[in-house]
Amino acid sequence: MPKLLVVMALLFLMVTGHKTNLPDSKRASDARAKVWPQLQKELTGKGFNTYGSIYIRVFKDIEQMEIWVKLGSKYKLFKTYDVCYYSGGLGPKTKTGDGKSPEGFYTIEPKQLNPVSNYYLAINVGYPNKVEQLKGYTGDAIMVHGHCASIGCYAMTNPKIEEIYTLVYQSLAAGQQKIHLDIFPFKMDEDHLKFYAAYKQDAFWRTMKPGYELFEKKHIPADYEVKGKEYAFKR
After folding, report:
1. CATH classification at residue 102
2. Would you call the peptide bond into 102 cis, given omega within 30 degrees of 0 as the criterion?
3. Catalytic residue among 18, 84, 147, 153
4. Catalytic one among 18, 145, 147, 180?
5. Terminal-to-terminal C-alpha distance of the chain
6. Does some domain include residue 3?
7. Which range is the signal sequence, renumbered to this chain (predicted)?
8. pLDDT tens digits, 170-210
């Protein structure tokens, strides 16, 4: 696309305030007005397009969420947020009421935004995914949200969710159809897997490892198929 058209498209988005079919509220709009100008400065300062596609990755053991932004054909780390609270320790969520926060490969679409959450702003992670549904796992409405308390969700605090929610909203508004959200118990290299080998989830974690490795190698979010109720990644 010619540079002039790109500039015109971005100006249109700015003037119209991203009028889209995305769920919205005054609360979410006010949050965007507060944090988006600074986020744009941070993005451009690191060489990113302010309306680029994003990828989200969570590591439970170190309680961190990473936001990656597409730069060229690959994704580059933009920002890391501390997770304020999640429940249940390491290991996947398998049923309603188990108090666990999920682990797996998820996607975020526009319908998963909740701009009027009781926890300020919230994004449904998409649990249970295809693999979890085939395994008969139960539960729903598992969120990344504000505040610093939750059972089964990832609570980020209100200031952090304002930024995370805004980045997700702006990427979807700019045309990204789905955002990959990968939640790992830890960085899935052999050292970590050996350290946590005594956990009963070791076999499951090893099915997640190829997806982790693909992103580490290519810096492109991994897509999966389902084989035998397990993840099978497209290499």
Report:
1. 2.40.440.10
2. no
3. 153
4. 145
5. 30
6. no
7. 1-19
8. 999 999 999 999 999 999 999 999 999 999 899 999 999 99
